[in-house]
């Protein structure tokens, strides 16, 4: 039987939702590996809406579930309906929506809170010993919820290639072990069944992002 994988989205668009290329890569690689993706998102307002052409917030209001449905081509469920019993794994793509809509990391960093629905889902998969795949900024959710876990967001030294490296330092302050990695690599925390890859935390060619996410997906399915 095909493995069933929950994919949790945070909106549509890198600056206020899920990073579209990352979400698409997850869905493509799951399909290629013969797995069945089931897409979910919380039915909540976005923190704000960003005009991606200008890089500036707008006065609009949008809903995370409604916007995520754009990526899922309408085939999406409310995160409140997720039942871990019927699923084999969980994957959360990145994008600022993870730090704005699934948590308050964007405004509070290591002192953030994770939304109750998202935390409940992560804990349910963890308790059931089912693997969790995380890319880009989404490993911060694990760092906040599972003290002592091991993840990667790429490198911990800021430079032109790694503009968000300070994230790794904040995660370390939460008691997380950050493992430096290249964009095409993944890190597997075998004890917690966490698989992470840096994706767009790195300024890299898009096919390298795609390749790293493919490795993450394959490792998640191997562990499922």
UniProtKB/TrEMBL annotation:
InterPro entries listed in its UniProt record: Class_I_gatase-like
PANTHER family in the cross-refs: ES1 PROTEIN HOMOLOG, MITOCHONDRIAL
This protein's name: GAL3B protein
Native organism: Erpornis zantholeuca
Gene name for this UniProt entry: Gatd3b
């Amino acid at each position: 039987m095909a493995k069933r994988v929950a994919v949790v989205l945070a909106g549509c668009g890198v600056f206020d939702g899920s990073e579209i290329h990352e979400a698409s890569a997850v869905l493509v690689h799951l399909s290629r590996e013969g797995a069945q993706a089931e897409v979910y998102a919380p039915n909540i307002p976005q923190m704000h809406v960003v005009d991606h052409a200008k890089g500036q917030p707008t006065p609009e209001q949008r809903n995370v579930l409604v916007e995520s449905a754009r990526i899922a081509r309408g085939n999406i469920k409310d995160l409140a309906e997720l039942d871990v019993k019927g699923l084999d794994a969980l994957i959360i793509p990145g994008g600022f929506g993870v730090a704005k809509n699934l948590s308050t990391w964007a405004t509070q960093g290591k002192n953030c809170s994770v939304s109750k629905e998202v935390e409940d889902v992560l804990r349910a998969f963890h308790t059931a010993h089912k693997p969790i795949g995380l890319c880009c900024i989404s490993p911060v959710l694990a760092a906040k919820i599972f003290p002592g876990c091991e993840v990667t967001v790429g490198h911990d030294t800021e430079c032109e290639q790694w503009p968000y490296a300070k994230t790794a330092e904040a995660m370390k302050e939460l008691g997380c072990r950050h493992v430096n990695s290249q964009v095409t690599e993944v890190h597997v925390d075998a004890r917690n069944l966490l698989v992470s890859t840096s994706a767009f935390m790195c300024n890299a060619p898009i096919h390298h992002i795609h390749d790293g996410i493919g490795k993450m997906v394959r490792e998640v399915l191997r562990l499922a």
